[in-house]
Specification:
The chain has about 350 residues and is α/β, with parallel strands linked by helices. It has two domains: about 180 residues, 3-Layer(aba) Sandwich (D-Maltodextrin-Binding Protein, domain 2); about 150 residues, 3-Layer(aba) Sandwich (D-Maltodextrin-Binding Protein, domain 2). About 45% of the residues lie in helices and about 15% in strands. The protein has a five-stranded mixed β-sheet with strand order 7-6-8-5-9. A four-stranded mixed β-sheet has the order 2-1-3-11. α2 links the parallel β1 and β2. α3 runs parallel beside α4 and α6 packs across α7. The longest helix is centred in the N-terminal third of the chain and has 20 residues.
Length: about 350
């Protein structure tokens, strides 16, 4: 996995750098060199393989529909870091990030039009995921639920909520579990989550980096992971790992949006909209399921019920007052995560 990911990342970053240095066109969809249109998708860590597969399907679809060739540049990293890179000048036509708040950051910079959340179906979330545990085969320490992770001697690998969208989902899932144990006793909830983070031995900047630390570097007893990352690891390393679904997790909703300022400048608005709309097609939903993400199409999701645990109890971001409220309460500078992790 490490060698394959490194090659993909090097290719994407090289292409991304070239795209950022190139010119752009005004008017209709005429961006790119020669006869091919070009768009850049700035995404988060674990979606590399998903978009490699999806991009090929979309290029074929768009060629059949319009007769036009398309080139698609991928860029990947921690979701929060990726959002900041767009604000700072990365020439993204579309963003496909880990959570709504990261796209809101770009909107607040004036680069995405208001109302983007309703531009595409289901709050502009064409697929979902959840948070699970990945352990080594045999699960020597019998880690089955969140309370097992706070036991002495358990070594946790988990990305950093300050840079990783996935890590924010991880934190909220753990918080919800503790809340269901302790009700409104916030001191006990904080103590629980503090104990969990005291057991985190490596805190990478992104979810894929955390997977590499656990899988390739052999560190830790458990990885708190996106479900799709855990599924991919099971496929890549059969009989070496186990996926554990905790009793309580969270419905993680990655979001997509057109970066209107860049798409208007690059003349890619029409193409960008088609690119994101096609994620809801039956073909794309199958690709999504095959890559370990939960399709938004319930029929496709249920058809892959042998892949996903559809019985897990899932809270949602609405249980935390929505993303703006959750970010300010838990992840802003000086908020609860800083309070907990500084002790």
């Amino acid at each position: 996995m490490k060698k394959k990911i490194s090659v993909l990342l090097l290719t994407a970053l090289t292409a991304f750098s070239l795209a950022a240095c190139g010119g752009s066109s005004e008017g209709g969809d005429t961006a790119g060199s020669g006869d091919a249109l070009e768009i850049t998708n700035v995404s988060y860590d674990p979606t590399r393989e998903l978009y490699v597969a999806y991009n090929e399907a979309f290029k074929e679809h768009y060629k059949e529909e319009t007769g036009q060739d398309v080139e698609i540049v991928q860029s990947h990293g921690g979701s929060g870091k990726q959002a900041r890179s767009v604000v700072e000048g990365a020439d993204a036509d579309v963003v496909t990030l880990a959570l709504e708040h990261d796209i809101t950051l770009i909107e607040e910079a004036g680069m995405i039009d208001a109302g983007w959340l309703n531009e595409f179906e289901l709050d502009s979330s064409p697929y979902t995921s959840t948070i699970v545990f990945l352990v080594r085969k045999g699960n020597e320490k019998n880690l089955q639920d969140w309370d097992d992770l706070i036991k002495p001697g358990v070594e946790i690998i988990n990305p950093d909520p300050k840079s990783s969208g996935g890590a924010m989902w991880n934190f909220l899932a753990a918080w919800q579990y503790a809340k269901e144990q302790y009700g409104d006793d916030e001191d006990k909830i904080k103590d629980f989550v503090r104990s969990l983070y005291n057991n985190v031995t490596v805190m990478d900047s992104g979810a894929r980096g955390a997977t590499t630390t656990f899988v390739e570097n052999g560190q830790g007893d458990v990885l708190i992971a996106w479900e799709n990352e855990a599924i991919a690891t099971l496929k890549e390393y059969p009989d070496q790992y186990e996926l554990i679904t905790p009793s309580v997790s969270i419905l993680a909703q990655p979001s997509v949006a057109i970066v209107d300022e860049n798409a208007n400048k690059n003349g890619t608005q029409e193409l960008a909209k088609a690119y994101l709309e096609y994620l809801y097609s039956d073909e794309a939903q199958e690709i999504i399921a095959e890559n370990g993400y939960r399709p938004s199409n319930e029929g496709v999701l249920n058809a892959h019920g042998d892949t996903f645990n559809l019985d897990v109890k899932l809270c949602t971001i609405n249980d935390f007052g929505g993303w703006n409220a959750a970010y300010e309460t838990y992840f802003a500078d000086g908020a609860i995560f800083d309070e907990i992790y500084s002790h």
